[in-house]
Design goal:
150 residues; mainly alpha; 3-stranded antiparallel beta sheet; 7 helices
Length: 150
């Protein structure tokens, strides 16, 4: 088999200048500060996202709303909710008016777990903020919010 010829250059920005890749690199750099902490509590990043969304919720959340908030696909989220329920970290209740749908709330054990993780999570945020110049983290949040509105 003959070696494949090198492709002609494509007129587009380099891979290193790809915005999705830059965001992925930044995400990985940030998550290195949090993964060990989550692993100590036998939590995946996705499970942590769910617990964080629920601890901030003022009312029970439907599975669909939770999927939207956490950027998780329905089937993955459903499996995750079973696991979190078995661990006593969340509570499920039938949706008023539609017994096929569920409303999810964080259980007392889930609140306790988030409260135990919170101080070290906040310390990680302080380390990230300290690595940036004054105001950069706030500006980054603003830029990401703006980018999210596209």
């Amino acid at each position: 088999m003959a070696p494949r010829a090198a492709p002609d250059r494509v007129d587009m920005r380099t891979f290193e200048q790809s915005l999705p890749m830059a965001l992925m690199r930044a995400r990985e750099a940030v998550m290195r500060h949090f993964r060990p902490l989550l692993a100590e509590h036998d939590l995946t990043e996705q499970q942590w996202r769910v617990l964080r969304a629920l601890v901030d919720a003022d009312a029970p959340v439907s599975v669909g709303e939770l999927a939207t908030q956490t950027f998780l696909l329905g089937p993955s989220l459903s499996r995750m909710l079973v696991s979190l329920d078995e661990r006593g970290l969340i509570e499920r209740a039938s949706f008023v008016g539609d017994g096929r749908r569920a409303e999810i709330t964080i259980a007392a054990a889930g609140v306790d777990l988030v409260a135990r993780i919170a101080p070290r999570s906040e310390a990680a945020y302080r380390r990230i903020d300290a690595a940036l110049d004054d105001g950069e983290l706030g500006r980054l949040y603003e830029l990401l919010a703006k980018l999210s509105q596209l």
